[in-house]
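GrpE nucleotide exchange factor: structure, please.
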Amino acid sequence: MILEDHESSLTPADRRDSPDSDPVEPASDEASRQTETLLAQLEASEARAREHWERYLRTAAELENLRKRAQREVESAHRFALEGFMSELLPVKDSLELGVADGPEQSTADIRQGVQLTLKLLTQLLTRCGIEEVDPQGELFDPERHEAIGTETVPGVEPDVILKVVQKGYILNGRLLRPARVVVAGSPGS
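Here you go.
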């Protein structure tokens, strides 16, 4: 009871200075809880950052591997780009070699037939490879696909009509490889 009387007689300032009272402790508990919460958040953030960094490193390595593989494939494609075409071209060469080997004993008709068959083989090969002939005989001159190497005036023929194809042109998959070299009808008086 004396203790109770003593505590009731204490002023607020006395209570604050009393060794029994610990008003700092509740604030300290709150700060401790906040610190623990912040440390937990920091650890979680650091873990996420490590995970993102590792994911970034893996992705960067994958991209580098992909770049190297693509470069190897392009180099390989360049080295072997003609392989298929050349393997199909070899029968044409074989046919020409057979014709040359049998040359002295063959008649002109036989040689001509052999050349025609060889030309047919070559034309089929070019078609399979996507190469189209540009043979514009009788068409209007088109500077995008034709090269005029001369003009002739022919009565009854419109100007700019192709009179003669000196050398056929070729297109590969829609792209001009070589323009057709042609003689074009000129206008009268030119």
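Notes: DSSP finds five helices and six strands in the chain.
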